[in-house]
Design a protein that fits this description.
Layout: E1 6-9, H1 19-46, H2 53-82, E2 86-88, H3 89-122, H4 127-130, H5 133-159, E3 168-169, H6 176-182, H7 188-222, H8 226-256, H9 263-287, H10 290-299
Parallel strand pairs: 1-3
Antiparallel strand pairs: 1-2
Helix pairs in contact: 1-2, 1-9, 1-10, 2-3, 2-9, 3-5, 3-7, 3-8, 5-7, 7-8, 8-9
Keywords: Cell membrane, G-protein coupled receptor, Membrane, Olfaction, Receptor, Sensory transduction, Transducer, Transmembrane, Transmembrane helix
Membrane topology: Multi-pass membrane protein
GO molecular function: G protein-coupled receptor activity; olfactory receptor activity
């Protein structure tokens, strides 16, 4: 009888008189995210010159970015507009699942793209042989599968917890870590799973990305030349910037902002990797790319 059927989301730490300005700002950012990433997917589908492994992975990353923003931002905008901050239990559990799912998928896809760049720079003569279509499909399918398993495991464990009536979540969405703090049950198993499996999901892809870039740097610096360094930066610079932005904000939220005084900073960092990063990806990773510009000109 005391089990909560809905939760209360406190939302963003902004003043009531600023609600309209922030609503317009986040609505514009969300529409830019959706339209920009949809444009990337459309260009890759229509232009045969973009039917390469890098753009194949990029199309999945663009879809994942749209989905990651769509999990939380529309509900946040609706709450800001209507001032109704409640969310049903089922809706909250769904947010937990899809947030973990697409967050993990982003991480795996960034790792796969780093491997693709490693092969392109370190083994250019064997690139087409190594990055064949079958391997690309396996890498993407594996990313989707393991993301689904990870999200399902955490969601099923959260569904076993009890939440007292009138539970307040001090966030703008149902974040897993915040929900565990709001539960009336023993969450030691959930926390252990986050520290072990969740830590591995964070550390292993990041280690793979850093290892790829360290190896690439070693290959380039063996015979340093301005042309090789410039080509490597043009090939990998955007991807590396996205990786730093994505993992930097996640690390800030889940590893460096555990104190109560940094709650507002934690929410701002969450906005960064769920709203800002997916919005910037079309610009910093794709639309500044020469092949993507040619495809865009061709379409227009």
């Amino acid at each position: 009888g005391n089990q909560s059927s809905e939760f209360l989301l406190l939302g963003l730490p902004i003043r009531p008189e600023q609600q309209g300005v922030f609503f317009a700002l986040f609505l514009g950012m969300y529409l830019t995210t959706v339209l920009g990433n949809l444009l990337i997917i459309l260009l890759i589908r229509l232009d045969s010159r973009l039917h390469t492994p890098m753009y194949f992975f990029l199309s999945h990353l663009a879809f994942s970015d749209i989905s990651l923003s769509s999990v939380t931002v529309p509900k946040m905008l609706m709450n800001m507009q209507t001032q109704q901050h409640s969310i049903p239990y089922v809706g909250c559990i769904s947010q937990v699942y899809f947030f973990i799912f697409f967050g993990c998928l982003d991480s795996f896809l960034l790792t796969v793209m780093a491997y693709d760049r490693y092969v392109a720079i370190c083994h250019p003569l064997h690139y087409t042989k190594i990055m064949r279509e079958e391997l690309c499909i396996i890498l993407v399918a594996g990313s989707w599968f393991f993301s689904c398993v990870q999200a399902l495991l955490h969601t099923l464990l959260v569904d076993q917890l009890s939440f007292c009536a009138g539970t307040v979540i001090p966030h703008f969405f149902c974040d897993l870590a915040v929900m565990l703090k709001s539960s009336c049950s023993d969450t030691s198993l959930n926390e252990l799973l986050i520290l072990t499996e969740g830590g591995l999901i964070f550390i292993l892809p990041l280690s793979g990305i850093l290892g790829s870039y360290i190896h690439m740097a070693g290959i380039i610096l063996k015979v340093p030349s301005f042309k090789r360094i410039s080509k490597a930066l043009s090939t990998c610079g955007s991807h590396l910037f996205v990786v730093c932005l994505y993992y930097g904000t996640i690390a800030w939220v889940y590893f460096f902002s555990s104190s109560g005084n940094s709650k507002d900073k934690e929410i701002i960092a969450s906005v960064m990797y769920m709203v800002v990063t997916p919005m910037l990806n079309p610009f910093i990773y794709s639309l500044r790319n020469r092949d993507m510009k040619h495809a865009l000109q061709k379409i227009f």
